[in-house]
Amino acid sequence: MESHEFTAYIDDLAEKYDHFLCDCDGVIYSGGKAIDGSIEALKYLRSKGKSLYFITNSSGRSQKGMQEKFRKLDIEIEVKEALPSGLTT
To answer: Residues with catalytic annotation?
Structure first.
């Protein structure tokens, strides 16, 4: 997807929705690296005042652990935005 197409796509989503559930592994990051464009997309949605929640099917991290993982990727999230599988099942 070209940059202008991505911008139009995310703009359309931001107009339609106020809350976003973001899958983590393989979407926001892979291993210890952010997926290309993910940080920019999250910053954009935040700039539009959207609520973001981060979900993972990994039971190996706590909410605080997820926050620390994101911080290492230069992505700031609040603990309450982190929803590991142990919390949601």
So the answer is: 18
